[in-house]
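Margin note: ligand = zinc ion.
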Amino acid sequence: MSVADVERSREKKIFPTLIGNDPLRSRLGEDILSSSLSHAYIIDGKKGSGKHTAAMLIAASLSCENKDSPHHALPCGECPSCKKILSGKSPDVILVKRDDKKSSITVDTVRELKNSVIITPNDTEYKVYIIEDADTMNVQAQNAFLLTLEEPPKYVLFLLLCENSGLLLETVRSRAATLRTEPTDREKISEYLLNRCDNSEVRERANELKRTSPEEFSKLLLLSDSSIGQAVDLLDEKTRNPILKNREFASELILAMSDRRGAEKLLALIATASGKREETVEQLTLTQKALRDMTLIKRSDTAPMIFFTSREEAASFASSFTLPDLMFAYDAIAETKSSLSGNANVRLTLINFAVKIKTRNNKGN
Ligand SMILES: [Zn+2]
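Resulting structure:
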């Protein structure tokens, strides 16, 4: 591609269905249009921030039949190749997932991947491997993956999706460019739900909610936690309830921690927990967000809230904690989460957490 072509290509609309994320869009768009794509990218960002959407758009762009046409977006979304890839039907775009029952991607999954990589693509020039939760690959799996990652066949592109790429071995990170997806602001989420989302059911639900209850709609944007994925989930009753349940658990956990009389409340609450690892980690992450709001409210009158829907609510929760209490709780939760990211037993880990909080509360009395 000549310089003039690259200049012209800048005017091409890149990844039209990805919301926000302009740095990632321009970097990848240029790499694809100038055929200078690396053989592997780490896409790092929180849940619902567009990692999966970006990965599918990259895969479609590579084989889009209108790639070089200035009149089409990249990918065009209309050609047979785009349609096949974006509907998840292409055998050349392979999703690698962690076994549902396991907390990590194991060496068995990597072995399967290595066997598949050597088979040439079916329909297109490329084979794209989208590795979900790549940061849960255990050390053995990462080491097994290294050689393939270093010298894959020419037609292979690896996209490693991570919530925390820092968990990957340095040797893996050094072999792939890291791109980050960014949290989306509420206005963009609102615009997406109401007007831009491809799914007409989502658009209808959003417009209906905004019309019948603008307050509920604003609350939904707040609860979406800057994530389009979560906002869409909140519009649907089936997926909304688990999110609300997790938030409720986080609030109850904080109330139980503030009880100075003993650990009974905390232990009783833990007894009601599901014992599911991912759900527990999500609940603890929400609790940390609440603790962060409570810490900020003690220090500033204007800091934006990320968990509580009002400053009054945050202040009321914060009133039974001192600043050092809040920091202690935050760190204790961080430690608990880190144990859970290994294979520690969920319930025992939570009980240890309760004991830590109780010991601290006793010292304070
Ligand atoms: Zn196309």
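The first helix runs from residue 3 to 10.
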